[in-house]
Amino acid sequence: MAELYDVAVLGAGPGGCTAALYAARAGLRAVVLEQLSAGGQMADAPLIENYPGFPEGVGGFELGQLMQQGAERAGAEFRLAQVTGVQLAGPVKRIETDSGPLEARTVVLATGAGPRTLGLAGEDTLRGRGVSYCAACDGMLYRGKTVAVVGGGNTAVGDALHLAKLAAKVYLVHRRGTLRAAPVYRQALDAAGVEIVWNAKPAALLRGADGRLTGLRVADTASGAARDIACDGVFAAIGRVPDTALFRGQVELDAAGYLLADETTRTSVPGVFAVGDARAKAVRQVVTATADGAAAVHFAQEYLTEQGGGPA
Ligand code: NAP
């Protein structure tokens, strides 16, 4: 028979780790399932300067490890496992993983989000060979080289500014004629020497005989005219998509695939809670994810009390 937990947390980002910490401290039997390492998207950030309590900033990977250690110290169990399926309805929820099934009376969905891909031919195979979704992680590999950042939002602009400190030349390729990013960045881009390619839609990833990326073909959104931008790296910063495919059909999602839940983190399924970046919300930050984790356990406890009986 599968083991029964009070709380199963899917994902060990800041929301998941906080839920585990609060659950364990509440005397609940809690398990966190994570396929990679603690921290989630945060683990890719070299320095986090907007999480309170770290006046000098803190490495994202380090903060993830600290969050896991804190939850473990409180008694939560962490398992390295990939979730392959869930059955969320009913008083006992079942979770299938690549290392066997488990059951839980409540589930906290904390699977976060991942980068939106460009949708271009060969993108998958060029990942790590010229195509990147994380300037903070991979920027160093392009020191003295030429890179193109795709996107016009705050992330794309921040990435372009970060890369301008390392690369010899940075293009910012945006599909419209105005940035979505805060206007304050415009001057900074000019000062950093970033060349903006306006009204340009990525059309193809160009590659050389060795299989590595050699450039980005863009199409003018008005005329359709193609232009090839020779570059060593393409950084896609065109938004993120929530990792919620496993829950589709069981929990209500919004049109973009985010889990519908308000500040209580309660989803459409009793006993199932949504925290962090996978939840439909206005502000996606480490600090809002951790707040979600605390709220989820508060309402999970309320739910368990209503269901009757104490911890498993
Ligand atoms: P975003 O604001 O959604 O911007 C995505 C950008 O990518 C937009 O410019 C969009 O173009 C473009 N885009 C989307 N799909 C595309 C496609 N298929 N092909 C080409 N371009 C495409 O995403 P984000 O920049 O990652 O920011 C997410 C949230 O985090 C925002 O609320 C942002 O303000 C926040 N954030 C804040 C900071 C900060 O305060 N320093 C830093 C990073 C992120 P259109 O403009 O034409 O739609």
Question: Could you provide a short overview of the structure?
Answer:
It contains seven helices and 17 strands. The chain is of the alpha/beta class. Strands 1, 2, 3, 4, 5, 6 and 17 form a seven-stranded mixed beta sheet that branches.
Distance between the termini: 15 Å
Shape descriptor? elongated
Strand content: 25-35%
Number of helices: 7
Which segments are poorly predicted (pLDDT under 50) over 5 or more consecutive residues? none
Task: Bin the helical content.
Answer: 10-25%
Rounded mean pLDDT score:
95
Blueprint of the fold:
Blueprint: E1 3-10, H1 14-25, E2 30-34, H2 60-74, E3 77-80, E4 83-87, E5 93-97, E6 102-109, E7 113-115, H3 123-126, E8 131-132, H4 135-138, E9 146-150, H5 154-164, E10 169-173, H6 184-192, E11 195-197, E12 200-207, E13 213-220, E14 226-230, E15 233-236, E16 240-242, E17 272-274, H7 286-307
Parallel strand pairs: 1-2, 1-6, 2-3, 6-17, 8-15, 9-10, 9-15, 10-11
Antiparallel strand pairs: 4-5, 5-6, 7-16, 12-13, 13-14
Helix pairs in contact: 1-2, 1-7, 5-6
